[in-house]
Amino acid sequence: MDMKKTLKEFTKGILRENPVFVIALGLCPTLAVSVSLENALGMGLAASFVLLFSNLLISAIRNIVPARIRIPCFIVVIASFVTIVELLMAAFSPQLARQLGIFVPLIVVNCIILGRAESFASRNTVFLSVLDGLGMGLGFTLALSLIAVIREFLGSGKILGHVLFESFPPATIMILAPGALLTMGLLIGLINLITSRNKG
């Protein structure tokens, strides 16, 4: 296995093909749960788990699934791993499960998960599909966390419930929907600016 190709498959989801900032997928949970870093990390880890294991299984069965029913099969695989995540979260972190609410079961129809299954895992080896799932999951988690840190700090003056500056006047709009859109838009613009300068 070419080490350069291996590294490329793993790192592409972090910046070059970041699912949130570059491909603009999975925006509903990104906007909804990025109000706090705790929620962002919980959603990112849940989605990463599903990405990793659904990529692995779909790649393993890709040659025995008839083409005409591949999408329903992919959805069944993804839904199975989402159910596992739901049960684990309810058992070990019920408060986080309540905070994330409907967005955990909605991972089943998350465009990132199904998109990677269709465009990558169903066409590549198990090893490369695992790397793709890990990289995309990490990229999604980092994007969610970055947005959440900015929103939580500016909106409440806290990070993970800890006050950083006693006299900091919070901007309540940042923990509302407009704050999510504003933060994500500015970050996408900044990343595009950096990328275009590097290409130039």
Show the helix and strand layout.
Blueprint: H1 3-11, H2 27-33, H3 37-61, H4 70-92, H5 94-100, H6 111-119, H7 126-156, E1 158-159, E2 162-163, H8 177-199
Antiparallel strand pairs: 1-2
Q: Your description of this structure?
A:
The protein is an all-alpha fold and 200 residues long. The protein is built from eight helices and two strands; from the N terminus they run αααααααββα. It has helices spanning 3-11, 27-33, 37-61, 70-92, 94-100, 111-119, 126-156, 177-199, and strands spanning 158-159, 162-163. Strands 1-2 form a two-stranded antiparallel sheet. α1 packs parallel to α7 (126-156), α3 runs antiparallel to α4 and α3 runs parallel beside α6. 35% of the residues are buried.
Specify the number of helices: 8
What is the CA-atom radius of gyration, in angstroms? 18 Å
Envelope shape: globular
Beta-strand percent range: under 5%
Largest sheet: 2 strands, antiparallel
Unreliable sequence segments: none
Mean pLDDT: 90
Briefly note the structural class of the backbone: mainly alpha
- Helix coverage percent of residues? 55-70%
Keyphrases for this structure?
200 residues; mainly alpha; two-stranded antiparallel sheet; 8 helices; globular
In short:
This protein is mostly helical. Helix content is 67%, strand content 2%.
